[in-house]
Every structure is written in C-alpha cells, then in structure tokens.
Amino acid sequence: MPRRLEMDRWLFGVTLTLCLLGAVMVYSASAVTAGEEYGHSAHFLVRQLLWLGIGLGALLALMRLDYQRLREPAVVFSAVCVVFVLLVGVFFLDKSHATHRWIRFGSLGGIQPSELAKLAVILYLAWFLGQKRRQTATLEFTKEDLVKTLGPALAPVLLFFGLIVLQPDLGTSVELVLIAAAILFVAGLSPKWLGAGAALGLPGLYLLIMKVSYRHDRVLGFLNPEADPQGKGFQLLQSLIAVGSGGFTGVGLMESKQKLFYLPEAHTDFIFAVICEELGFAGALILITLFVLYAWRGLRAAFGAPDNFGRLLALGITAMITSQALINFAVVLGMMPTKGIPLPFVSYGGSSLVVMLAATGVLLNISQQARPQDWQE
What we know:
Elements: H1 9-38, H2 43-64, H3 73-89, E1 103-104, E2 110-111, H4 113-136, H5 143-165, H6 170-187, H7 191-210, H8 213-223, H9 234-245, H10 271-303, H11 308-332, H12 350-369
Antiparallel strand pairs: 1-2
Helix pairs in contact: 1-2, 1-10, 2-12, 3-4, 3-5, 4-5, 4-6, 4-11, 4-12, 5-6, 6-11, 9-10, 10-11, 10-12, 11-12
C-alpha cells in the first residue's frame, strides 16, 4: 500500500505567518510615504497582496507537482536558458534606479531575473550533482574529476554571476555563489577546495568593492558611520536609531518615527528596522524564531529526501532563504555594509516574494516524500 503523503504543516504555517506579518509591516512602513507620493496609503500594500496571491498560487501548484518531474533535462536546461535570456534582455531595457535589474509591467511593477537565477542555479546543481552521484556511487570529489565535475557544475553559476554583477548587483551575485557553495559542500566537495575557491575570488571581490565609488562609500559608512552622518553613514545610523528606539516591546504598530522620511527603503530592504522599532525586541525575536523554524523544517526535508536530487534541491532552497534572511538582519543591525537584500517573505517586492513562495512549494513537495534514510538512492 503506498505511503500517504502529508503536508508539512509547520513549514506551511511558518511561511504563511511570515507573509502575513510582511503584509502588515509593509503597510505600516509605507502608508505615510505612499500617501504623500501616490495619494493612497495602501499603494504598496495592494501590490504586495497581489504578488502574494500569485506566489501562493505558485506554492500550491508546485506543492502538488512531484519534484521528480523537475529533474528532467528539458526542464533543467529550459530554466537555465530562460533565465540567461532574461538576464541578457534587461540590458536592452531602460534603466531603473540607475541599474538594469528589472523587467517592468507598467504600474503593476516588475520582475528581477536575478531572483529567478537563484532558483535556476539550485535546480541545475541538484540535477547535475545528483547525476554524478548515480554514475560514480560516491559524492566525494577527487583531484582527477575536479575539472570535469566542477567545470560544468559552475559554468551557469559563473555566467549568471557575471551578468548580475554587470547590472550592477553585487549582493545578489555573491549570494548566488554562497548558495552554490552550500550545495557543493553537502554534495561532498572538500572544505579545502571551497577555501581555495574563496581565496581565488577574494581579490576580484576586493576590486569590485573598493574600485567602485558607491560600494567604497558603503564600506566607509559601515566602518565609521558617525564620520559622515548625513552622507555615507546616514542609512545605517537611521536603521540603528530605529532598532534602538524599540526597546523590548516596541513603540507600537504604525507608530514608528524613523519610517517618516528618515529611514530610506523602510518598506523594502530595511523593514526589519521598522519591525524592531514598532514591535521591539520581542517582535524581532519572534521573527527570527520563524526563520529558525523554517531552516529546521527545510533541513529536515532535505536530509529525509528519498534521493540526492531532492536532498540537494531542498538544501539549496533552505540555504537561499535562510542565508538571505541572515544577510538582511546583519545589514540592518550594522554587522555588514549596507546592501540591498530584501527580507524573504516580509519585504515589499514582487519577484522576490513569488520566487520564495514558489521555492517553498517545491520544498513542501519534497517534505511530503521525505523519510529518514541514508544517502543511498
């Protein structure tokens, strides 16, 4: 008798809670500025709810689609090719905020192909490394097969990395590499090779940061924000003021002062600062706990998956969402230089929300089929 598949209620509940909390906080953080700029306080909320509906539809559809169908080469290579075309296509469109990151759909907003690139990379690496496992009966990388394995494995990653850097969007491109590194590590790549790759990449990363004026300014603002409180250090200082003003229980929902034209990007990349101010340490702790629960259920699904494709796919999705949350927390709290990385499920943004929910749908499908077992297929 076939095993009855059950949805991971914890994972689904945590995801839905994060989305609903995000919708509330997007309205709270944006109502005043939306009213001033667009004449309607719910401008951003309406769009967030619309994208949330699309994302939940994708989640439910992918939750019911057997993830094994995603390992078909036609699906994998189609995803990689479509994302490549979109990443190239944005350079032929008008700039938005001085970057080539968006494909716009009028007043509805738009999508960022770089968000789709994360999913494409996860899918490709899970398929490719899963194939290697089935062919070699081992997940260990040797010196002899490093070139023939890592070359094809990293080709799409490096290609997407270069295109996203050119947009320019260094934060997302670095996150793409971090996700790939997590998958390769779980697949059996020795830490020494990961360390060697990091050492080779550090000089290039240094040049990308220090030789680009606005990135260099962000580093200076991070190291000493008080030296230029109205310039380089402004956003970080306003964020820290918001976090510090919340105390333990916060100043109350809708009562943030920093969101009133002081804190830039209050409803997007710095929404966590508004949460800390309005809901306090208690609210921030609840939010962090929700992401910890997500990571727990994601890893549970990964290591209980019935095959290596599912294991690596689930691990990549979990790494994508939890690493992005950690980076966002670190930026808002002044532990990393300022970078535009949205908080998954919570920040305002259509493409990020839809991609995260679609990925969670795949994760929920894997969790339905998960069972405790070893790495053998």
